[in-house]
Amino acid sequence: MFADWAPEVRYLIAQTQIAGVKPTDISDALIRSFIGWFVAKQNTVDTSAGWCNRLVGWYVKERAKGSLSADEEAPAGGDWASKGVVL
């Protein structure tokens, strides 16, 4: 990993499709956080596709932990109340 790394679009799209998330859900802030973490871990080596896989996994884990800020977190399905869903 290096500081000016950017995910290749084709690999990012493939990995997000596999994980069931949208590529647009992965914000620039999340990518910067991911890069910052792995730049510090210089012994970790991977391919471009492998880094995209790790990035999508990072997003899924952060979303599950609830540690994404409101602007990073994607809507879970739009306005479910307008579809008649009542809790």
Brief digest:
This protein is mainly α and 87 residues long. 48% of the residues lie in helices and 0% in strands.
Question: What is the oligomer described by this structure?
Answer: single chain
The number of helical elements comes to 3
Low-confidence stretches are: none
SSE class:
mainly alpha
Largest sheet: none
End-to-end C-alpha gap: 45 Å
Order of helices and strands: HHH
The radius of gyration computed from the alpha-carbon positions, rounded to a whole number of angstroms, is 15 Å
Instruction: Please provide the count of β strands.
Output: 0
The total number of structural domains is 1
Range of helix content: 40-55%
Q: Summarize model confidence as the mean pLDDT.
A: 84
Shape: globular
Q: Beta-sheet strand percentage?
A: under 5%
